[in-house]
Specification:
The protein has about 375 residues and is an alpha/beta fold. The chain has eight helices and 16 strands. It has helices spanning about 1-20, 170-190, 205-215, 250-260, 290-305, 320, 340-345, 350-370; strands spanning about 20-30, 35-40, 45-50, 55-60, 65, 70, 75-85, 90-95, 100-105, 110-120, 150-155, 190-195, 220-225, 235-240, 310-315, 330-335. It has a six-stranded mixed beta sheet with strand order 12-11-13-16-14-15, with helices on both faces. It has a five-stranded mixed beta sheet with strand order 5-1-2-10-9. It has a five-stranded antiparallel beta sheet with strand order 3-4-8-7-6, with no helix packed on it. A hairpin with a 5-residue loop joins strand 6 and strand 7. The protein starts with a helix and ends with a helix.
Length: about 375
């Protein structure tokens, strides 16, 4: 008789697992962020959406949580709860403040989805008030969901990129601007920002694209400085992808950027046919319109805030853009081979101005594409 009761108890215990697996949740405050962990005995797919003060984790499948609603004692978290939406389960995290950034990743054995949440306390950048196209008021209206932005500092390690007359290296300038841009974005938007490199190391063009695709990013921005045999060449340019270059000078630039790790001081190709070997990823074609819009908004801000000569928006077969499945642009900030612009590029103030201009371009792009 006891065995029958025992079997009945075991059977009743197993019934919920047949209908939906129960997920565990835990959280902890750390000095710079708060971590929320969702643990499961089986892997699940998910999407994450954010609105001011709230995070929605949409889990694909019929899951349940051990609690229906829970108020928590945390520096950042207020409460969390879950609800059903068709065949999906939505885990909702309510925060104490509207402005935040979030990083997320998964671990295995057991499967865990980890959310690292950081408060944003700084106001929108005051330096931008009243500048550029339309001022800063309401620029972030309509940015509803989390955007993952990849910033790619060109070159690195033994691939130094172009070199200025005084010895300034492109790889160092691009990294400095990229770090500044990341800082500005994270202080002002609930956006996840990932750099393809954070130090002076070699990263292949293929790996840069892989980082962006693996992060499921919404935007890819590659930062470079320009070079020319003419010391008088000056100004900024923003590129988006095309199998064919806009002009001969653009074709030569694309060749240099695509092969800079194999070149030393050579800028022009000996064999122009090499450019035809660039891999064309058809996935990028669906993002050409967005890439063109992103290039235009960034170039407009570079023109206005930096006062550099507008060399326009151009198309070129850059390898680093060809394999990313998202809107993607490559920015040539200024000519490092021009003595005057090299001096500007070495200035921390100018580097920050460049980062601010790119940031404004990103904001204007998001506003124009999301507010309909």
């Amino acid at each position: 008789m006891k065995k029958k009761y025992l079997l009945l108890i075991i059977f009743l215990y197993l019934i919920p697992s047949l209908e939906g697996l129960t997920l565990k949740v835990r959280y902890a405050d750390h000095p710079d962020f708060t971590r929320v962990v969702i643990e499961s005995y089986t892997a699940f797919s998910y999407q994450i959406y954010t609105t001011p003060g709230k995070i929605d984790v949409v889990i694909n499948g019929n899951f349940t949580f051990g609690i229906q609603r829970k108020k928590v004692h945390s520096r950042i978290l207020k409460e969390f709860y879950w609800e059903k939406n068709g065949s999906n389960t939505i885990f909702k995290v309510i925060l104490k403040k509207d402005r935040f950034t979030i990083d997320y990743f998964t671990l295995i054995n057991p499967f865990r989805l980890v959310l690292d949440i950081k408060e944003l306390s700084s106001p929108v950048i005051p330096e931008l008030e009243g500048k550029g196209a339309g001022g800063i008021s309401n620029l972030n209206r309509g940015i509803r969901y989390t955007k993952t932005i990849i910033i790619d500092p060109g070159h690195g390690g033994s691939d130094r990129g172009a070199r200025g007359p005084s010895g300034l290296l492109e790889k160092n300038v691009t990294l400095a601007i990229a770090k500044e841009l990341k800082s500005i974005i994270e202080r002002n938007l609930p956006v996840r920002v990932v750099l393809t490199r954070t130090e002076d190391i070699n990263i292949s063009l293929e790996d840069r694209a892989s980082i962006a695709n693996n992060q499921k990013a919404d935007m890819f921005i590659s930062i470079h400085t320009n070079a020319s045999y003419r010391k008088s060449a000056h100004g900024s340019e923003t590129y988006f992808l095309s199998l064919h270059a806009s002009d001969e000078e653009t074709r030569r630039l694309a060749y240099f950027e695509n092969n800079s790790d194999k070149l030393e001081d050579e800028i022009f190709p000996e064999n122009a046919e090499d450019i035809k070997l660039i891999l064309w990823d058809l996935a990028q074609t669906s993002y050409l319109k967005q890439s063109s819009q992103l290039a235009e908004t960034i170039q407009n801000e570079l023109n206005y805030l930096l006062g550099t000569t507008n060399r326009g928006i151009k198309q070129a077969p850059f390898k680093v853009l060809s394999n990313v499945a998202m809107p993607a642009v490559l920015i040539e900030v200024a000519f490092i081979t021009n003595p005057e612009e090299e001096k500007k590029l070495s200035s921390v103030k100018f580097q920050r101005q460049v980062a601010l201009a790119i940031f404004r371009g990103i904001i204007n792009y998001l506003k124009s594409t999301e507010v309909k």
